[in-house]
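dumping the sequnces here before i forget
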Amino acid sequence: MSEPSGLLDECLVPLTSNDDDLSLLLELTALLHDAQLYLFHLGQSHGPQKLHLLGEELTHTLGHVAQNLTLQLLDGWGTGFLSPIIGGWRSSFGFFYSIQLHARFCRSSTPRNLTQEFMMADAPRPLVDPYALSDSDGYFWVKGNLHCHTTNSDGRVPPQQRLDQYVEQGYDFLCLSDHRKITPVDSVDVPKDFVLIEGAELHPANPFGGQVHHFVCLNIHQDMECGKMPPQHVIDNVNEQGGQVWLAHPHWSSINIIRDTLPLTGFSGIEVFNSTCRFMGRGEGSVHWDDWMSLEGRVYPCLANDDTHGAPEDNRDTYESWTMARVKERTTEAVLEALATGASYGSTGPEIHSIEITREGNTAEVTVKCSEARRIHAIQDVYGTEYREGGELFTEATFSLRNNAKWVRFEIIGAQGDKAWSNPVDLRD
Ligand SMILES: [Zn+2]
Ligand SMILES: [Zn+2]
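..and the predicted 3d for all of it:
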């Protein structure tokens, strides 16, 4: 039995001993051809005896598709390959056990690499620097909201009126993302040059122990019965339609990235801010964002969305946050491309005009140009820095970044405490 070499070299499946987990596992086995599968289990209520029973159950279930199946019950504290992720759990779970299951699946004689085949099935696309896309080449900024609800689900405003309101407010693009329901673009009157993206908020079950998932799905055209579908099936279905899946308001959903998100693959990025969730004190998902990028060793772009439910006169969740995208034309394709490649930023007020990073060896310096700001935070994979001018407002800042960082992103804080979130820059290139 060889030792696993690292988190992303294996497929990690958190389990509780219920039927959903077993069916998820069986789906996974369908994806695997020749691989090792490691399973771990989290929970404080399961003693070793119960885990042993679960292990026997799994051995039995997998017996018909696997050969050379060995099962090892481990105390998670002692397993080297899990220790990077156990660290985050020690404080919230009194006990930690893991099941380590090594299965050699016999459907194919061709060895395949799980890292490529499953965890990283969507090899990350390098992000684009939106500030390098110049006006002279025909690029311009467009403003949009990718998450709102209408009377087609639990919104207060009918679809046409919702669209008209965002048009009047000067937005350039919008997605009517009702819960589990697509509003067809041709069912409303869309002004010329306005980009209405078809989509929905989908809620697949969460077999990993957390609350039901909330995914903002853009550019999908077929409703699906997602409530009973495993989350990976929903994500795959959206991607097969040419759509995008964005992890919505992770703080409000009490998402734990390790438990609920890391087992899944195929996301376009994360909703870093959600206006309506701010009213419950859970509007910002930046810690989840950083956590996710650190755990996966890659960068993800962000969206800032209203998640509008009310009417404008409610003065609650309309026009409070938005996403700016850098495009050459006003089309769904151009906006989606900008979002997926991070040629965008999110904001509740400040504008980002440019971010220029110069690197020399392990050191890096940045110059940020923006609308009036009081502070700029450079958030890196470890630590970070702050730029300020003693509380005075400024529109340009040059400062050093921490050495040896893998990535950096910037938060620009405006005069009123409003904020803009740049997308991360991968410093390893
Ligand atoms: Zn939601
Ligand atoms: Zn929503």
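The pocket of zinc ion (ligand 1) is lined by residues 201, 214, 248-249 (CB under 6 Å).
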